[in-house]
Design a protein that fits this description.
This protein has 800 residues and is of the alpha/beta class. Helix content is 47%, strand content 11%. The longest helix is centred in the C-terminal third of the chain and has 31 residues. The protein contains 28 helices and 18 strands. The protein is elongated. α2 packs parallel to α5.
């Protein structure tokens, strides 16, 4: 304020900025008293006398030195050198004592300096004049706290002290002020050792060392798992007046082991959204299962010498086990080879046929003379007509993602015998898409306008519509599939891309029984959210909706859809045959917990363009983000609760401006988090959760509770209380992404059986139950070393 002496020279280039977050009233008052006590230092620079005035901080909580003791020492030294009169020295010492004895207790009790005390301070300040002590002024030792310290000439102050140390051997205690932290610690340890030796010589018993506690025990894996997954969720139904959310992820093919790209592309993304919905209190049902009919299954059965049913049983169990390890918490994970599938699929077909939306036609089809069978699309491979990819399938090219017919392949071959395929004629049934096209276009435009469709979904759908819809064959010459209920076609089955999406309905029916229609024939009260990879777009935005629209019946149609691009592996493709990439069953055999895998896949989710799994990047994100940010904050908050308050969540006292600013910042992030999650922007949602953790770490650095605890227990209590409240909110924000991490913190805090963990729109700092005892925390994340990276890259990088 106006009482401060102007600065000049270099100090003017380093203006003092008082950041309100960096000080409490106690600190500011003591600085003011010190300034008023006569801090002005007259020096000669360039032949001219100048005055340099710096606010002197003589707070006990200075991280560099005990300023009170230093000032007393300087006063005694000045008196000894004849530079101070006895009256002046006494006044300096008495002023310091007065601050300790009167000012600090008054601040703690009333939160401000009483007027009579302030008047006394001013009177005392007028009599305490201290210009120099051998080149050292009280201004020279003004090392400010926290962030302000970066704006002062700290080096000059330490240099002055160093000069004094060289000229006066009795200045020994000050040596520690100018030493690096490590040397200071070593000097203190040495002095303590010498002190103990002296006491031992005098016959005194040295003090016993404080008994070191053993490291806290981590919770058992099974104990954590109980909190990450629900035990056989009970069937639920839409409720009037509630937000009813139906969530599906693309049904994974049963004929393989899912790799990381499969997992992030469907089941993991949907699981994050479903967990978010439950934490928000929505009535949410998450349905998925294995897609088991079709050529892919027959092909795999032939390869392994098993029946299609045996293949389905084997791989369904593998899928279920992988997803369980990844903490994918379905309401029901079923399969499409069920009676409900036959009943519902045939019912939809019959309705489409009744409404005149099914047509018959002959089609040319590839036939293998060697195998004596018509070849379904999956039994054919060849060169893509559009992009010249030489290993395109008979129904779709994996490179350019275009849907194909087997006849469009160049040089088609039988996948079973590798022989050439020839063209023959076969009679089939078609979904008459041109007749349904106008209804479909209305559906697409309305849902894009009112719902949330990812950009790649919109582009992919309009690309199909722009080309014009053609009749789509929905039958195949196979035995493993849903039988066609029409005379003349009973030896055929439904094509998998007519049949498979109906699996969402049949799997729901297997879970809730006849009540499945409450979910799937209830568009007014149910909103449908679907998650998948970009190769599934046309089947979910064109083929499946057309199948339902073709019945002219009431259905719950797609409202919101999130489709990912591809996740590559080290810039290449996942390949089980070549041993390239991490597959689900292999991930669980590593020492890396599921929450680490989930975090990396989600923060690297290919929402806009293809992304790659890279081991070095994986390690960097685990170490620099999970450990250094999230894990660090949680550990500090819970450790301080144990060390400073005996494990009991402390009370919150009067909030200071730094606390109010922090609460405001966290509340802003909470609102942004909810906006992102409602829009299915999962990656942004996760980044927002991590920002809350970052704000928590910054709050710790600004308030320094470890220093405040030495002088103001109540203030420290408030800081730790806000930190623990933040941890509770972080658990809720992170639970959709890392349920394993959330479960561990719930167990450490012993709040796992309470209802404090919810996703709220405002940072309510009264959520943490004051006085509640928590356990000693252990690190919730483990570092991934360079050796780990090399080991796993070697293991998963090539042929095994």
């Amino acid at each position: 304020d106006s009482s401060c002496t102007p600065m000049s020279g270099k100090q003017k280039e380093r203006p003092i900025r008082f950041q309100r977050e960096a000080f409490n009233a106690d600190s500011l008052t003591v600085s003011f008293v010190a300034h008023k006590a006569g801090v002005d230092l007259k020096v000669v620079e360039g032949g001219k006398e100048q005055v340099k005035g710096i606010v002197v901080d003589i707070c006990d909580d200075s991280p560099f030195f005990d300023a009170s003791a230093a000032s007393k020492y300087l006063a005694k030294r000045g008196r000894k050198a004849g530079l101070l009169g006895g009256k002046q020295a006494w006044e300096v010492e008495d002023n310091i004592a007065f601050v300790d004895r009167v000012v600090r207790p008054g601040l703690r009790k009333e939160g401000k300096i009483p007027a009579d005390v302030l008047a006394s301070l001013n009177e005392r300040a007028q009599g305490a004049s201290l210009d120099r002590i051998d080149g050292i002024s009280m201004a020279s030792i003004a090392i400010e706290l926290l962030e302000v310290g970066a704006n002062l000439d700290k080096g000059a102050a330490l240099k002055s002290l160093a000069v004094a140390m060289e000229s006066d051997a009795s200045f020994g205690p000050a040596k520690k002020w100018s030493l690096p932290a490590a040397q200071k610690k070593a000097m203190e340890a040495k002095e303590k050792g010498q002190e103990k030796s002296a006491k031992a010589k005098d016959g005194e018993k040295p003090k016993k060392k404080k008994e070191k506690l053993p490291p806290p025990k981590e919770h058992a894996v099974d104990e954590v798992k109980k909190l990450t997954m629900r035990e056989t969720p009970k069937p639920i139904y839409p409720q009037e007046g509630e937000r009813n959310v139906l969530i599906t992820s693309a049904l994974p093919y049963v004929n393989n082991v899912p790799h990381l790209g499969n997992i992030i592309g469907c089941v993991l993304s949907a699981d994050v959204f479903a967990r978010y919905c439950r934490l928000r209190g929505y009535n949410a049902l998450y349905i998925c299962g294995t897609d088991e009919y079709g050529t892919a299954t027959e092909t795999k059965a032939i390869e392994e010498g098993l029946t299609p049913k045996q293949i389905c049983d084997k791989y369904h169990a593998i899928h279920a086990e992988v997803y369980k390890w990844f903490d994918i918490d379905f309401d029901y994970f079923g399969r499409t080879t069920t009676e409900w599938q036959t009943k519902i699929a045939q019912g939809i077909f019959n309705s489409c046929h009744r409404e005149g939306n099914i047509m018959e036609d002959e089609m040319k089809q590839l036939y293998c003379a060697s195998c004596d069978r018509f070849l379904a699309d999956r039994f054919v491979y060849g060169t893509c007509y559009y992009c010249q990819y030489e290993d395109a399938r008979g129904d779709q090219c994996d490179k350019c993602t275009r849907l194909l017919t087997a006849l469009e392949l160049i040089n088609p071959k039988c996948k079973l015998c590798k022989g050439d395929a020839e063209i023959r004629t076969s009679k089939h049934l078609f979904l008459d898409l041109p007749k349904i096209e106008s209804k479909l276009e209305d559906f697409v435009s309305t849902k894009i306008e009112k719902g949330m469709w990812s950009e790649n979904t919109v582009q992919g759908t309009y690309a199909w519509l722009k080309e014009g819809l053609k009749p789509r064959c929905i039958t195949r010459d196979l035995k493993w599939g849903t039988p066609v209920p029409l005379e003349g076609y009973t030896n055929k089955v439904f094509y998998v891309w007519f049949d498979a999406p109906i699996g969402y309905l049949s799997i729901t029916a297997n879970h809730v029984g006849e009540g499945w229609e409450q979910w799937w024939r209830n568009p007014d009260n149910v909103k449908l959210y679907q998650f998948m990879g970009k190769d599934n777009i046309p089947f979910h935005t064109v083929i499946f909706p057309s199948s339902l629209l073709g019945t002219n019946e009431k259905w719950t149609l797609l409202d919101n859809i999130s489709t990912t691009e591809y996740l590559q592996y080290e810039d290449g493709k996942f390949s089980k045959s070549r041993g390239t990439g991490v597959f689900g069953n292999a991930a669980k055999e590593t020492s890396i917990p599921s929450e680490a895998w989930r975090y990396y896949l989600l923060v690297n989710r290919p929402e806009v363009s293809d992304t790659s799994f890279k081991w070095e990047d994986f390690a960097a994100k685990i170490n620099n983000e999970l450990l250094a940010n999230l894990g660090n904050f949680v550990q500090r908050a819970l450790s301080f609760t144990n060390s400073m308050f005996e494990g009991a969540i402390p009370k919150q006292y009067e909030l200071m401006q730094v606390d109010k600013d922090y609460i405001e910042k966290v509340t802003a992030e909470l609102k942004l988090y909810i906006d992102n999650m409602e829009a299915m922007k999962l990656k942004d949602g996760l980044k927002t959760a991590m920002m809350v953790s970052k704000l928590g770490n910054q709050y710790f650095q600004e308030t320094e509770p470890w220093e405040v605890a030495k002088v103001d227990k109540e203030r420290c209590s408030t800081i730790i209380n806000l930190a623990v409240n933040t941890v509770i909110y972080l658990v809720s924000l992170c639970e959709p992404f890392m349920p394993g991490m959330a479960a561990k913190v719930k167990l450490i805090t012993k709040l796992d059986k309470t209802d404090v963990f919810q996703i709220r729109e405002v940072f309510d700092t009264s959520v943490a139950p004051v006085g509640h005892k928590i356990d000693r925390p252990y690190p919730i994340f483990q570092r991934l070393t360079d050796e780990d990276v090399e080991l796993y890259r070697s293991k998963f990088g090539g042929s095994q």
